[in-house]
Design goal:
Elements: H1 53-79, H2 98-111, H3 121-140, H4 162-171
Helix pairs in contact: 1-2, 3-4
Length: 173
């Protein structure tokens, strides 16, 4: 199982939902970005685990690069007067709120976008299977949800509750 990015500064071991554009959200885009569930456009992956043995070192390198970026981002935000703790490896910044979001945007403009994870074919196939299972769960709960096209993220059904989303997120694991 691998962790997927969220639309906040926090990295979580769960998937969010996205529009049917190739997307991974935090702030950057790249040709190696995989589709993720978010509510917006292009974005990046934050971390993964698992995959093939040949991708193990690449994943470790990607995770280390992201952790280093998160530390730089936290320091930049402290330099702007916010009380931001150094994030734990793989966790990202967990503080939130309008001031944090504004500082994060300013710092990202200053230090650049986060590193992008290069997705393996196996990771993309597993992600697609997860999206298909989630879409089926949404339909089982009575929502209008189409299977995402290959290479696209799943679309959040109109009016879905947090409880139903969490239920279907678990079904997709």
């Amino acid at each position: 199982m691998f962790a997927l990015p969220t639309t906040t500064l926090r990295r979580a071991p769960s998937v969010l939902l996205a529009t049917p554009v190739l997307a991974l959200t935090l702030a950057a885009c790249g040709s190696d970005a995989a589709p993720t569930a978010s509510t917006g456009g292009p974005s990046t992956s934050s971390s993964t685990s698992g995959g093939s043995s040949s991708g193990g070192q690449a994943t470790a390198d990607s995770d280390a690069a992201r952790d280093a970026y998160d530390l730089r981002l936290a320091q930049c935000m402290r330099d702007r007067g916010l009380d931001i703790a150094d994030p734990a490896p793989g966790e990202g910044i967990t503080e939130g709120g309008p001031e944090v979001d504004a500082a994060a945007s300013a710092c990202m403009a200053e230090i650049g976008d986060p590193p992008v994870h290069a997705w393996t074919d196996e990771e993309l196939a597993a992600l697609r299977e997860r999206y298909l299972a989630m879409a089926e769960c949404f339909r089982d709960l009575g929502y209008d949800a189409e299977d995402p096209a290959p290479g696209n993220a799943i679309t959040l059904p109109e009016g879905i509750s947090d409880a139903d989303f969490q239920h279907c997120e678990q079904a997709g694991q």
